[in-house]
Amino acid sequence: MKKSESVIIIGAGGHAKVIADMIIKSGNFLLGFLDDNKKISETVLGYPILGKLEDIYKFYKTAKFIIGIGDNYTRKQIADKYEVEWHMAIHPNAVIAMDVSLGEGTVVMANAAINPSAKIGKHCIINSGAIVEHDNEIGDYVHISPNAATGGTVKIGDLTHLGIGATVKNNISICGECIIGAGAVVVRDILEKGTYVGIPARKVE
User: Is 16 in a helix, a strand, or coil?
Assistant: First the structure.
């Protein structure tokens, strides 16, 4: 049985609340939050604001950390700046198949499914109900939104955001730093960063 970990969440907004619920339900110990926009006297879901982000090294010997912020670039900025141990959060109702690789700091939310031989980078978000099919290669700081789905052998580059309900056909490659809009359907490789929407997905900016 995996040993329980003590965890502090960076950020205390809505996304952080979801991660807090995951940490508690998975049997780990939530110590509280670090957030630059809240007061130490405040609580979130009954757990304390322990300080600001600059206070992180006060706790690094007693806790692991996870970034509870949805923006890909903000997660990268924080992870690059602070050398601490990062916690990986997996909801008990997520399905993780055999031979799956998950990077540090990644979160896999309720009812998400990651199928065999998929490789997920660090500090990614595999959101509620998302499907990552077999043999996918997902880069670092990627967000796959609720109910988005990727077919088999899909590659997605760093910092790309797959919107709610988006679909990626099998054997497709998407470069880094893209936004794939909600409900979009990607049927051809995307080789240029930008925002893509529609069916089939087309670049708009």
Answer: helix
Retrieve residue 102's tokens: 């998950």
CATH number for 146: 2.160.10.10
For the stretch 167-195, pLDDT in tens is 999 999 999 999 999 999 999 999 999 99
Q: Look at the block and give the residue holding tokens 């499907």.
A: 131
Tokens coding 106: 């990644």
Active-site residue, selected from the candidate residues 15, 91, 123, 134: 134
37-66 core/surface letters (b: 16 or more CB in 10 A; e: else): ebeeeeebeebebbbeeeebeebeeebbbb
Does residue 80 share a domain with residue 12?
yes
Cα dist from 38 to 22, 24, 178, whole Å: 22, 22, 31
The whole model's pTM is what?
0.95
Q: Taking 60 as the threshold, does the pLDDT of residue 1 lie above it? A: no
134 is catalytic: yes
